[in-house]
Amino acid sequence: MKPPAQQERGPATMLPVGSPAAVRRYVRLLARRHRRGFGAVVVLHSVSTLAGLVGPWLLGGLVERIGAGGPVRLLPAVGWYAAALAVQSAFMGWSRLRGSILGEEVLADLREDFLVRSVALPPGVLERAGTGDLVSRGTTDIDRLAKSVREAVPELAVALVSVVLVLGALLVTSPLLALTSVLGVPLLLVTSRWYFRRAPQSYRAEGAGYAAVNTVLAETVDAGRTVEALRLGGQRVRLTDRKIAEWVAWERYTMWLRTVWFPSVDATYAIAVLATLTVGGLAAVHGRLSIGQLTAGVLYAQALVHPVDLILRWYDELQIGQASLARLVGVQEVTAPETDERARPQGREVTAEEVSFGYREGADVLHAISLAVAPGSRVALVGPSGAGKSTLGRLLAGIYAPRKGSVTLGGAALSRMPAERVRAEVALVNQEHHVFVGTLRDNLRLARATAGDTELHDALAAVDATAWVAALPAGLDTEVGSGGTALTPPQAQQLALARLVLADPHTLVLDEATSLLDPRAARQLERSLARVLAGRTVIAIAHRLHTAHDADVIAVVERGRISEYGSHPELVAAAGPYAALWRSWRDE
Amino acid sequence: MPLVDLPMPDPGRPDLRGPLPFLRWLGRSQRRGQLLATLWAVLETGCQAALPAALGLGIQSAVDHWAAGVWRAAALALGLAVLQSVGGVNCHRQAVWNWITAAAQTRQLVARQASRLGAGLSRRIATGELVAVSSGDVEKIGWYVELMARVRAAVLVWLGVSVVVLVRQPLLGLVVLLGVPVLAVSVWPLLGPFERRYDEQRALGGKAGELAADTVAGLRVLRGIGGEELFLARYREASQQVRGAAVRSARIWSLMQAQQVLLPGLFVIGVTWYGAELALSGRIGVGELVAVYGATAFLAAPLRVLGEAAHAWSVARVSAGRAVRVLALSRLEEPAGPAGDQGRLPGAGVPETGPAAADGAELPEADSADLYDPVTGLTVRAGRLTAVVCGDPDVAGALAARLGGHVPLAEGEQPEPAARLGGVPLDTAPLAAARAAVLVHDKEPALLSGTLAALLDVPASGRVAVPEAMAAAQAEDVLEALVEGSPECGGDALLATVTERGRSLSGGQRQRLALARSLFADPPVLVLDEPTSAVDAHTEARVAAGLRGLRAGRTTVVLATSPLLLDQADVVALVQEGRVAATGTHCELLHTHPHYRAVVTREDDHPSLQEAS
Does B585 touch chain A (CB under 8 A)? Predict the structure, then answer.
């Protein structure tokens, strides 16, 4: 059976995935950190397994003596057996507990390390790569790893210990029987190799197929109005059925893999038990093996089944975990742009000189743009979509470094300054107004960690937010963000503005900050915004002409170049395209 | 054995009287699969239970120095091993397939329900709940349905083995008959506390996960403004709480692990002790003693499925309950003739996309009929471009929805009089016919993910070509952005992928792409609610001209406040306090109506850059 055709791949990720060497390095680091815990688990489990070997050994002796017809005292044997059982179960529980504690410590390290690395990512990388991939690494991959670390790693370690000890017991009992019980191993190795070369990616595809059904459904639900308006109901049902068929095809394929592999595993066990029984039985008939050895050997051979099963079962889980780990470690490999500690601005003038920039090699979005923004002045960037206004804004905010030319703040190259220094001077305000899960206070204090309540209230007052904040159930302590009190989009935007007041950068780049809001809200927000802007240098990417009208200087950006430049009256007098647009807007 | 083909051509009509009836209905619709899984499981566990007897036989033969006996025992063991393997693999296949069947069937039902409820859905239920049914709940439902076959098999094998032993050794048989179920349920007392702690761990884990996702999602803000350390500290605290809770639940779990070694072990010791006494007194052979030991050591395992079943029932009941609630929802809307009832039958088919199948009022030829809204008194002339200016965006949104008819209501909401197309209330026409006549393009039309070709695969008149629609909506740069973002498309924009909700595009790009789609659909009546609110002035002016050109001679309504759009309309209506207050051209109203002028030019208050300086 052939695997189903691969479904379309998701969009390529912009963040790197860790190399095998990097993953190994990280695993070694974790192993060193948790050396003692790991050792304890192995020792405790060894004791438990050894105690578990006592039962079959006692039974073997018993069978031998009863078979020989000799006098047998049962009570001591029963007593020993019970004592061994008590030790086995106690140490079993203890080793599992230590294993869990270890697993949880490793897991906590993994997720915390990941977040530490994530919050150190350069802003330019975040801007380009978006946060979607990073979020899925921080949730889905962490969850997958949790399964590996909580279950697969301890189970595998424990099973390996068991296999080694049981084989040891077999060797002690009878080398011959140790040999017969591993007769099936070559078969197991061949078929498992076949299976594990196909299994991991197939299970991943199966999981992706399962999730794809939900994605389609979630979209149908989310887009309910659109689906109904455009009469797409039937189409969505057919699409879901097709996604179900794709998922089921993968289920069928992985099932086929197991249909081949499971019987071969069964056969391995059967070979071990049968060979031990036959060879051992015949050897006993000929007196080369005692009945006690035979009984214990057969039972030990059976005792191998469970740990080997565990190894096989958790092996691919471990591989899945490894893939997730590679994605987590990959975040580490993002190279931060070189920064220069000595790059310190002398003054507040933002200057772009002959700046060219493109996201891809050979495809520049901006061509040799020069622009000087005097401290305290207001510049509006206008122009059609896709002209490069937003890109220019991001260069002026120091998020991207120019490919050619330079963007400087007070004479120092913005792209050479560390992100922490840039943001003390320049901030980008866009449509994204994320409200973090947490209290309103947390949401504000991120801009200035030392701020007291008075400062926070002052900042809120500055953006006209005092009234609604006072109406919140617990004021600054109200839990907001997803799951908490929901803020309206204008409130969220005011919150973002209050953060700006607290962070207090002297230059702001506004990227259509209010364009997604409905006009009423936009007007109220613009009032809040106006207060925040007072006394700062402002570079505004403007959609609405009245914003441009009020600026000191307007730069019309078209096809990556500044096509018109001057104050509003100057541009209107020049009677160019801007003037025409203004007239149709104002109907003058 | 051939497995049933999935997805089913028709998932059927579920029994929605409750969780248990629903689960039973799922089980009934895969009766053959259930029967086969039971039989295969009986074969597998039966052989497993018999294997120790073969081993005992071999050891007995060795004791008796009977080589042929050893061979015979080996042959028996081989036969059992082969049968067990056949039973095992087939049982696995059938059980997994039963699980998949139940899950796929439920997902098909949910998908049909989602399409049927359409716009009414979000008014009635949190969208997350419906998706939860399809993701997490179907797993649990499938698990329970599949498990029933294995439960039946385990009980059959336990009874069978008990009978065999009872016949040979009544006392031992009795011990097996009664002791095994006790062992199987012995873990239950710990299960409750474990689940409570596990739930706590999961809740904390969920919170920490949310916190991580939230922090990462807002990372651009953190990196742009600051606060990384604050958020890291918060996350560390949450993460350590999860660790603490996980260790607490691991304490009980490790206790359960120890208990699962101890109790079956004691049972084995007891039974073996008794067996040894029998063997000593010569009533059974040593081979049989080994068989007794092996069989008791194995027997508790299959009956653990009872514990699993108890657990499965406790979670599947909740999941099935949610599925039933979701599947029983109906579109809440004032019944308006037979069409209103169409959506009330649970499990009814997919809404027809073609011409109305159900009875209902016949709509006039939509191309040449005027549209009238009794609430505002707005009349939209056929074949004209009408603009509506409304200071309150909510009123505008409600007006747009009314113009399409069949407005879904939230629980307890009172319906408003329906808009009339050529005098016929739209609500009295079948839903599909109303939607075919009037397309309402709301404020935030969704972009469904997939290729651009799939996005544009909407019922369309065929009069407008894709490039024309794209050009009119000024969406050409969107095509470039899409091609750039999906290297796999090989430069063909139609094969480029639009990500979920069009997230890879900017707000303005999304709006223009959605507008292009509606223009391509080219409905007889098109109602556009703020179609260019996120588009810059340069582009908006071009979109307005493109819209006018492409919709020439077709009925179009634009709800907007931007002069650039209003200027292109044949007629503009001003809605004030819920009623049409004035009509005329943009130019006329601008010079005669001060309120109109205030709304569209924002002269009254435009605090912006100037005010601050």
Answer: no
Give me the residue from B74, B115, B393 closest to A519, CB to CB: B393
What value does the mean pLDDT take over residues B128-132? 76
How many residues are given for chain B?
613
Per-residue model confidence (pLDDT) at position A377: 93
Instruction: Round to whole Å and give the CA distance between B76 and B78.
Output: 5
Top pLDDT among B304 and A87 is at: A87
Contact call for B610 and A550, based on CB within 8 A: yes
Cα distances (angstroms) measured from residue B286 to each of A112, B64, B199, B290: 59, 10, 49, 6
Contacts with B326 from chain A: Cβ below 8 Å: none
Burial B510-538 (b: 16+ CB within 10 A, else e): bbbbbbbbbbbbbbbbbbbbbbbbbbbbb
Q: A544, B446: Cβ pair inside 8 Å? A: no
- Give the residue from chain B lying closest to A86, CA to CA: B262
Name the minimum distance, in Å, from the CA of A451 to any CA of chain B: 12
| B356 band by pLDDT with thresholds 50, 70 and 90 | very low
Average pLDDT over residues B234-262: 92
CB–CB contact A281 B286 (8 Å): no
B contact residues 509-548, partner A, Cβ 8 Å cutoff: 509, 512, 517-518, 521, 530, 533-539, 541-542
Q: Do B216 and A224 touch (CB under 8 A)?
A: no
User: Does B266 contact A at CB distance below 8 Å?
Assistant: yes
The top-scoring range by mean pLDDT among A115-119, A153-157, B37-41, B310-314 is B37-41
Q: Does B45 touch chain A (CB under 8 A)?
A: no
Q: What is the pLDDT of residue B605?
A: 45
Chain B 336-365, residues with CB within 8 Å of chain A CB atoms: 350-353
Quick check: helix, strand or coil at residue B464? Answer: coil
**Chain A: residue whose CA lies nearest to B394:** A518
Whether residue B7 is preceded by a cis peptide bond, meaning omega within 30 degrees of 0, is yes
User: Minimal Cα–Cα distance from B128 to chain A, Å?
Assistant: 8
Give CA–CA dist A393/A508, Å, rounded: 10
Per-residue pLDDT at B20? 95
E strands along B391-517, which residues?
A: 420-421, 424-425, 438-441, 450-451, 497-498
Per-residue pLDDT tens digits for B472-518: 999 988 888 888 777 777 778 888 888 777 777 777 889 999 999 99
Pairing of strands B420-421, B371-373: antiparallel
Name the residue facing A82 among B228, B269, B601 (closest C-beta): B269
User: How far are the Cα atoms of A234, B11, B339 from residue B351, in angstroms, in the given order?
Assistant: 6, 15, 12
Length of chain A: 588
Nearest CA in chain A to B66: A285
- Give CA torsion, residues B33, B35, B39, B41, to 10 deg: 60
The secondary structure element, H or E, covering residue A541 is strand A537-541
User: Token match 């056969």: residue?
Assistant: A267
Is B100 an interface residue toward A (CB < 8 Å)?
yes
Question: Cα separation of B401 and B392, whole Å?
Answer: 15
How many CB contacts within 8 angstroms connect chain A with chain B? 520
Q: How confident is the model at residue B1 (pLDDT cuts 50, 70, 90)?
A: low
What pLDDT, in 10s, does the model give residues A138-163? 888 888 888 888 888 888 888 999 99
B20: number of Cβ within 10 Å:
15
Q: Which residues of chain A have pLDDT under 70?
A: 6-13, 513-521, 587-588
Chain Cα centroid distance, residue B84: 38
Residue with tokens 């029994």: B15
The pLDDT, as a whole number, for residue B37 is 96
Of B77, B226, B228, the CB nearest to A503: B226
Q: Are A17 and A327 in contact (CB under 8 A)?
A: yes
Distance CA A202, CA A184 (A): 27
Residues pairing with A379 in the sheet: A539, A553
